[in-house]
Design brief:
This protein has 560 residues and is an alpha+beta fold. It contains nine helices and 30 strands. The strands form seven sheets. Strands 11, 12, 13, 14, 15, 19, 20, 22, 24, 25, 29 and 30 form a twelve-stranded mixed β-sheet that branches. Strands 5-4-8-9 form a four-stranded antiparallel β-sheet, with no helix packed on it. The radius of gyration is 23 Å and the shape is globular. The chain starts with 7 loop residues before the first helix and ends with a strand.
Length: 560
């Protein structure tokens, strides 16, 4: 199943040297990258609020290398789509504020609907738009919270410490949820046995303690987890998350009782049976050739692994690159050409997996990956404070990656328990960074995460309404409902990156009157249900990657 390549540390080193030789950067370009200039401005507000609710506003200034641009000294003019909203008419940055400012209780909207703040620089034509804010007349029963739950630090093969990363995610990025998932058996060019010993002896316990220290219910949630890691050319990777930090245990990929996916899930079932807390596992980059996860070769556990990371800085595993995937895996050894590894394949086999996205970034920047930018030098301060790891090395050469991903959690409150329930019930969806796209999909009145994401029909050809609502962070290019692996309905909106704000939103309803057909993978693996999910693509600007979101699936079951 795997190419005859060296495994373990030597294999990873050889692969790294080969890639570096192929993609070595220009010394002149690296020297030029030491200073950047203002490239874009992001403004972050809570995504779901009530009329009159006081909101914090975070404004970030970024340079062309995806670094916070602390040298910007100037004002930004502010306007709102809600004529009765309260907001500052300008935001000032002083050139010594680390590239972002956070204004407490600075905004409130007074009209129900979807609203935006817009920003401009005096004397310039650019328009910068905040994330969409869904404003309801009453306090919403559930809210959309944003998180980055796939990160690495210098406790494995990344850079930076956990405290710095949590602070960046909470303060600079205004994230609601962050989780570090350091490797159980893969450090930075050290033997797997040594990384395993360090994780069992110190690192995992430290990760638990720091996560608990930063967990602040109703303000900022941290999850405890790790990455169950097969070595190069030996299999795929799975993130393991625990609801209760005190109960969390390290069941590593080299232990005799947990060295296969099936053994891991068996031990985790034993774990849940003896505790009052739960666990979630999430496979990721399943289509990467060096670390492939083959859904067709696994006795998959839909309950303990109810989600798959459809997108990260590696790219998208939704479908093959030659079939229209705008984010085919190019990092490492690139995308596997074998079937069975794609999310579309998993759904065809009948696996009940929802869709999330993560960064898999190996540095202290939750919510904003850097390595997709042009090659650039980390600062001397970063080398000294954060150490050497994949994020610092990947920034120096063209690793052919993409922006990281974000996960949206629909939950009634911001607590570990509520976030964990969103994960287990699939009440989540994924987007590319930094796009906090609001999106919903409903089939016959059922949304992902409701009623086990399933709708049971009274008759195989019973009519069902398919409803979508989207509010983007840029003009929407198209929205597509994918049914059983193929685009079923699509709405084209615009190709203009400067389109008015009316092109940022859409609401569509379609009727499906076709009989439920289900899917077939082979003689043994099939699904009697139809699976629907939503894919959203925004208009990219210049050489940017398109903002994208994946929501779902919802399964429609035939009559008993």
């Amino acid at each position: 199943m795997f190419d005859a390549e060296p495994t373990g540390t030597l294999g990873k080193f050889a692969e790294t040297m080969r890639v570096f030789a192929e993609r070595r950067p220009s010394v002149r370009d690296l020297l030029r990258s030491r200073t950047g200039s203002l490239d874009r401005i992001h403004a972050v507000l809570p995504s779901t609020v009530a009329v009159g609710e006081s909101l914090d506003l975070t404004v970030q200034v970024w340079d062309e290398y995806e670094r916070l641009h602390g040298a910007y000294d100037g004002d930004l003019r502010v306007s709102a789509t809600d004529d009765t909203a309260t907001y500052p008419d300008r935001v000032s940055l002083a050139g010594d504020d680390e590239g972002y400012v956070r204004l407490a209780d600075a905004v409130s909207f007074e009209t129900p609907g979807v609203h935006y703040l817009t920003f401009s620089r005096p004397g310039f034509d650019e328009r910068y738009v905040s994330n969409p804010v869904s404003v309801s007349a009453d306090s919403p029963d559930e809210r959309v919270y944003w998180g980055d739950i796939h990160l690495h630090s210098r406790l494995s093969d990344g850079t930076g410490n956990l405290k710095k990363g949590y602070r960046f995610g909470r303060d600079a990025m205004d994230l609601d949820v962050v989780a570090y998932t350091d490797h159980d058996t893969m450090g930075f060019f050290i033997p797997p046995s040594l990384q395993r010993a360090l994780m069992h002896g110190w690192y995992f316990d430290r990760s638990r303690r720091v996560a608990d220290r930063f967990n602040d219910p109703d303000e900022f949630v941290t999850l405890v987890g790790y990455e169950w890691t097969k070595q190069p050319n030996c299999g795929g990777h799975v993130n393991v998350y625990f609801e209760d930090a005190d109960d969390a245990v390290l069941l590593d990929s080299r232990g005799g009782t947990t060295d296969t996916y099936e053994k891991l899930w068996s031990r985790l079932r034993e774990f849940e049976s003896t505790r009052d807390s739960r666990v979630v596992t999430i496979p990721h980059h399943p289509t990467e050739r060096m670390y492939p996860f083959d859904f067709s070769a696994v006795e998959y556990d839909d309950e303990l692994a109810p989600l798959v990371e459809v997108y990260s800085q590696w790219g998208s595993g939704e479908l093959p690159g030659d079939e229209g995937n705008p984010f085919p895996l190019a990092m490492g050894r690139g995308e596997t050409g074998e079937s069975g590894h794609f999310v579309r394949d998993a759904l065809s086999m009948g696996h009940r997996v929802g869709l999330v996205a993560g960064a898999d970034y190996h540095g202290p920047h939750p919510g904003h990956s850097l390595i997709h930018a042009d090659p650039h030098l980390p600062s001397v301060r970063e080398w000294v404070e954060d150490g050497v790891g994949w994020s610092s090395i990947w920034r120096v050469w063209n690793e052919r990656s993409y922006p990281g991903g974000l996960s949206a959690f629909r939950a009634p409150e911001l607590t570990r328990e509520a976030v964990f329930e969103s994960l287990r019930s699939r009440r989540v969806y994924g987007t590319t960074q930094p796009h906090r796209i609001l999106a919903s999909l409903s089939v016959g009145g059922v949304e992902p995460g409701q009623n086990d994401s399933s709708l049971r029909l009274a008759a195989r050809d019973e009519l069902r309404e398919v409803d979508i609502e989207v509010a983007g962070t840029a003009p929407l290019e198209r929205v597509e409902v994918v049914k059983n692996g193929e685009t079923w309905r699509s709405q084209a909106i615009t190709s203009d990156p400067d389109a008015p704000l009316s092109a940022y939103t859409t609401s569509v309803s379609w009727t499906d009157d076709d009989p439920v057909e289900g899917t077939v993978w082979d003689d043994d693996r099939r699904s009697a249900a139809d699976a629907y999910y939503l894919r959203i693509t925004q208009v990219p600007r210049d050489c940017e990657f398109p903002g994208t979101a994946w929501v779902g699936p919802v399964w429609v079951e035939p009559p008993d």
